[in-house]
């Protein structure tokens, strides 16, 4: 059910304001893509949006993102109302941050992705989970978990400014501002530059 021209124009204008990194033409293209993705999705969400599977496939084919744990977390950061589907507003506003966000917006976004339980901290366990999935397996003679535990300790040493054994948003933000490469320290959750 294509929306009326007037409704579409209002949506485009509204999203151009809220997702401030895209112009009207880009927003229109993203809405078209959204409609195509919804059409692909035969679920009960189809009227309002598309589900995790379609989202995952799209990020995989568009940006080469393959890590399931990361993709699930990215889905959760996009799905702000926690209804299990991505609405057109969540889609455009989420991509605005992911593709064109300021450093500040990207720091918030990455922190939310890595904070698996949403308690406002990235704990040792969460770092371990994220790194375990994003690193290549080592030769069989070495316990891969040991290497990951070492990495977690290194990350904490470098990023845990208040020395409480976990990363608060303030720790994470300070670390990333000092060294931008740490933005995706716990797994690739932003598309490649290209």
TrEMBL record:
Residues 66-101, 102-137, 147-182 form the EF-hand domain. InterPro entries: EF-hand-dom_pair, EF_Hand_1_Ca_BS, EF_hand_dom, Recoverin. One of its GO terms (molecular function) is calcium ion binding. Keywords: Calcium, Metal-binding, Repeat. It holds the Pfam family EF-hand_7. SUPFAM superfamilies: EF-hand. The keyword Repeat applies. This is EFCB1 protein. It comes from Calyptomena viridis.
């Amino acid at each position: 059910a294509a929306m009326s021209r007037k409704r579409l124009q209002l949506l485009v204008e509204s999203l151009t304001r809220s997702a401030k990194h895209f112009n009207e033409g880009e927003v229109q293209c993203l809405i078209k893509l959204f409609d195509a993705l919804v059409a692909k999705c035969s679920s009960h969400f189809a009227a309002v949006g598309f589900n995790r599977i379609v989202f995952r496939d799209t990020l995989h084919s568009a940006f080469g993102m393959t890590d399931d744990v990361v993709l699930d977390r990215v889905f959760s950061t996009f799905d702000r109302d926690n209804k299990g589907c991505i609405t057109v507003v969540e889609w455009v506003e989420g991509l605005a941050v992911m593709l064109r966000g300021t450093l500040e917006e990207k720091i918030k976004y990455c922190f939310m992705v890595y904070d698996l339980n949403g308690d406002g901290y990235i704990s040792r366990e969460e770092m371990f989970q994220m790194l375990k999935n994003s690193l290549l397996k080592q030769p069989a003679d070495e316990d891969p978990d040991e290497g990951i535990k070492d990495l977690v300790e290194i990350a904490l040493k470098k990023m845990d400014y208040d020395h409480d054994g976990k990363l608060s948003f303030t720790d994470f933000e300070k670390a990333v501002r000092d060294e931008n490469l740490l933005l995706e320290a716990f797994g690739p959750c932003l598309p490649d530059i290209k």
